[in-house]
Amino acid sequence: MSDNPSFCIPLAPPDYPFIGKHPYSVQFALCFDQVLPPQPLKDALQQTLIDFYPVAGVLHLEDNTVFIQQQSKLVDLEVIEHPDGQDRPTAMLPSELAEFYLEVKAELHTPKPLARFCLHQFHNGSVLVVNISHCLVDGYSFFYFLSAWAKVCRGESYRVPCHDRHNLIPNIENVGDLARVDDFDATFSHRTGLSIHQERQFANIAHIEWESLLICNQELDALRQSCHPQKLSDNSILCAYLWKKYAQHWHHGSDSDLMLQLTCAIDFRRIYRKVIPLNYFGNAIKGATCVLTLEQIQNLSLVEIGQHLQLMVLGLRTTDIEQHLSYLEAYRHTYGMEKMSNLHVANPDTGLLVTNLSRLSLAELNFGQGSPLVLVPLVPAARVAVILPIHAALTVTVAYP
Fold this sequence. Notes:
Layout: E1 8-10, E2 25-32, H1 38-51, E3 57-62, E4 65-70, E5 77-81, E6 115-122, E7 125-133, H2 139-153, H3 172-178, H4 184-192, E8 195-196, E9 210-216, H5 217-226, H6 234-250, E10 259-267, E11 285-293, H7 294-299, H8 302-314, H9 318-335, E12 343-344, E13 351-356, E14 374-377, E15 384-390, E16 393-399
């Protein structure tokens, strides 16, 4: 990192909801059946951080604005050698990999590293654990960084990221007008997909009830056929399937008119490409939320729910992104940093957030010894479902309430 110039980058509006007390982070365990040599990974990490320098930064608060600044301490890859007789874990559930959890906190008053990397070495494979603060990355940026790191290990080039976060900061005058609207909180949630509730409290990852679903290609084809002749995207079909399954399970016996929310994490880089490029490194996500009653979820078919979701996602326009950014900025100016911890990615009582990362290429995560067998999310947040690729199938990791 000594070759990098000093930097001071303001957080963009989509970054702020993930800071404060009990901040969000993006963390995955990558399980390999090959033993990864540590030194090439260490060297490649330092080379990758030259272009992805915010990953090696810390947060600095100044007049209600947070900046990412360079830190003097080197961000390195920790290596843990496990005993010869200990096999690499084959678990698929985050709770079963709780011992591998790395803590990263986006703290403002005591600046700490915003990323950690740890390589666990076993006689029959490796587990690479990466945790990056969510205020730095969304899912796309997280795996953009990982794939670049892997490419360096393979001696390949990658597209240099864009760090122009200031382009997402809206006009302050408009923000002041929004903060004065009636029922600001409800309008904010509608525009951003975030819920305002009590302060976030994350349970220990080992204490959350998790479920892992394996959806093979034949099962996905069957779900598609059940929606024929409607032309629904795989994302709409999978989200509808998960909502129908878990809403009825989690709210069995509740009033039929109970309002339930499904939020899809939408990457808006393509929608907003006149403002930020596809190689934008940061948070370029918006929650798109669909609301139905429990009775509707019980009675509507999979295709009918899927149509609701597809219309919601495909209906997003540039003006929706502008409103999203403006309301995020208005929230910060209205409530300040101390209220960022009251923002939830899913309604803690009646919501479900689905993050679909199924388009990831496992081959892009080959650090020189072969692709990972499986990716396991290590995030201690409830009411979340993460869709990930696995060889010839998909996995869905679901955190119960």
